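name: query_chain
kind: protein
chains: 1
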Amino acid sequence: MIKKENQKAKILKYIDINAAGNFNTWNPVHIAELKKKEFSTDLGQKVLFENEYLRIWEVILLPKERLPFRKINLGYCWVAGSEGMVISRFSDGKIVLIHVEKGDSEFLDHGNNYAIYDLENIGQDILFFQFTEFKGEQLFDKSGIPQSIKRNTTRDL
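structure:
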């Protein structure tokens, strides 16, 4: 199950356009891609920053451009840098249409599972996204914070 948290007050415009389990409307090329089971774990096209806790990806999709199916097993958030329309196909057959506006953001967590899906720009404008991928449980382990962050106090001055 995917846990989603919308980071804005408004609700993103998600429309299910194909139900899970139904591959009748799918392009055979996309079905063949799924059957190959050769999925990248890259969230985006280019890593902009990476450290031990997170990886920030850039995604730029030209009109009709598509990121192939990816296997996602870490929590991440995304922020839209432009407005447009995308569709995302999931490995279970579900297809979702999403209207994004500049500044839209969302956090997704697949828990202990993974998800496989693609992302395609079906609009007429270039789409820009930043994805921040969180590297595992150590990010949420607060026990290491006192050792890793030293704050100045009046006693330190």
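note: The longest strand covers residues 54-61.
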